[in-house]
Task: structure prediction
Amino acid sequence: MSAIHPYYWNRASKELSRNDPVMARLIRQYKGEALFSRGDAFVTLVRSIVGQQISVKAADSIWMKMVQGIGPVTAHSVLSQDEALLRSYGLSGQKIAYLKHLSLEFHEGKFGAMAWEELEDEHVIRELVSLRGIGTWTAEMFLIFHLMRPDVFPVADIGLRKAVEKHYRDSETMNLAELEKISEAWRPWRTVATWYLWRSLDPVPVAY
Result:
């Protein structure tokens, strides 16, 4: 499946560059790169659950083992795997329970048929957090990496906070209110700003 890029990326990058010198520097540094979606709601949610509270590198390693072990990651393929095999990929028992629950919901059609594109951001979050193992952070990853909504700011994300502290406060610790205040200058393109900040920390682009 080919990658899907946001229609607004070039416009957003130009406006962020014009209004924020730090953003201008990051955008120049990663010129030609952009957020992309795989176009698969289930895969994005699985990758987001896998990535909860671990590094990007560790999450990518577990994901690659899953793909090598079970082939295409679908609701059916996850449901058909026993717990011991899933544990061998590096998944915790808790994450396995979350993935099994998610897979069952998609397999039974409740979420697989959801008209996500028609829902407002907050409505998407409410629907997703009703699933076991999905909190606000995971729902925000879905908004960014599947729906590619332009103005998502996952303020509780550790990597995002680290990047903002690095580039805007000489690595001085910041609280959530301070992060939110800085992000106001990036509206309505906080997704784009977030992506560039993440990119500044990792050797490869973050992708779920």
